[in-house]
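Moderator note: this is an archived Q&A kept for reference. The question asked for a predicted structure of one protein chain; the sequence and the answer are reproduced below.
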Amino acid sequence: MERHAIGPRRLHRSRWRGWLIAPGVALLLGLVFWAALIGPERRPAERPFGAGLPPIAAERAAPPFPEADPIAIARRAEIAAEEARLSALRAARLALEQEVAALERTAAERRSPPVPTGPPFPPLRVLLHHRANSPTAADAAAELARSLRASGIEVQGLRGAAFVPSTPVLRYFHEEDQAAALRLAARLGPGWAIQDFRAWRPQPAPQTLEIWLAAE
């Protein structure tokens, strides 16, 4: 079998083809290697939807908004209803607090009769009673007597008693002395009780009041 000899021209074309194919293969291998290196994490950032389009075109090309979630809508409605209920409860509580405050003021006014106003105390004779055999009670009575005398109220005397009330008491014996008793109790301070002793016999002279200090 005879072999045909390759002419110089044919050999020259074969060499040119080899030189052209080799760089293409090398370039292809380089691209594959580069893609393997950068991986999916190093891909260039995707452009936002509609980027590069005019505003009107981008708006028309934007996908429609998804429909609202019915569960979220129901949840928002429940929250709104609960907030409305709490607001109504707060308003009702405020109204009740105001009503209670008004009732407390009315009750306080009823418990404390108005103190008569007018000129300084009329001439009064005050008898001051304290617990007998109690140095502390005697000292308190002496101090109160000094304070009353400094105010122009006559203190006829201090008397010890075997039994004294648990609450400080101011007694009057004539109807016309009630206003003076109220004013004196207001001057002595809170916590004093007023006792009507008009039925007591024998009655002392008018403008006579008795102060009874509480047990010490």
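Archived answer notes: Strands lie at 125-131, 154-161, 169-172, 193-196, 208-212.
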